[in-house]
Amino acid sequence: MANRRDDLERQINLTFAFLSAESYDRKYLTQSWIHTNLEGYRHLSGDAFRKALRRDLATLRKIGVPIDDHTITSGPDEGKQAYSLDPDGYELQDIDFTAEEAAVLGLAGEMGQELELGAFARSGWTKIAASGANRDLGAAGMAVSTAGDLRTLSAVDFDAILHARRLGRRISFAYTRNRTEAPELRTMDPWGLVPERDRIYLVGHDLDRDQVRCFRVTRTSQVRVLDDQVENPAPPAANLQEVVRAQLRRGSELVDAHLIVEQGRAVALTSEGTPLGDNRWLLKDVDRTWLVRTAAAHAPEAVVTQPQDVIDEVVALLTTAHERSS
User: Fold this and answer.
1) For the chain, which domains are there?
2) Where is each WYL domain found (predicted)?
3) Tens of pLDDT, residues 278-325
């Protein structure tokens, strides 16, 4: 199941990158850019990367995602292999699911309402999820998952953000800082959606604060496309992934940790670490909350051995998950 989960997360990250290519000021995505920038590919060696990318592109094309091949003919990337996606052609045909395939949709969001399922079908996420229908469904009731923000991302809001990006329009949305505070109405010139360590962030120019901001999508809701055109577009050289990481570094507690990971497992963790031999890994300057949740999701294939306070938090999270599921 872990290998299929890693494949799915890579394919989702790749699709997000295609949909947000304009935000990166790129018409095409080159192999080297994908290898350097996208989670799930960065840790792979040259041959392993090319094999994984070919397989992921074939999977996306098989389910109807319109990806074209290009050889760049000018500029600094001349001669390189590149790929592009036609956003206007990204509306896919309806698809019917068996009961088993429907269970897989939990990886792409628990869309219980008919309207939500319709939006996900149009955007293609259901087909990406359905392509993994042969995975082991025995753990469908797990209380801890690496599906991350995809489990709670509203498909209607997702469609609204992509629609606003294509039209160059502003959006408004409700932002909830925490469960104890009432939602705030925010207005933004949206630049793109960026996946980062099992989370998804909405990046753009926050008009209420007059500065570049990143909002975790699980804290946003009721996205509306406004009539006003964007007046603060992303700078031509902006790297949205780095924008997100810079904001996270300012507001996160970073830790170093040692782990033991079964060979070939828990790629979400090993891709961020340095191998020490004997299945031991060192992760430096990683977000503490992300580490605890991700280590718990991959247990027992991944075990934190240091520091003790992180171990205690992982154990507490797993204990809570077990109590809720029993």
Assistant:
1) 2-146 (1.10.10), 155-250 (2.30.30), 254-325 (no CATH)
2) 158-225
3) 999 999 878 888 899 999 999 999 999 999 989 999 999 999 888 877
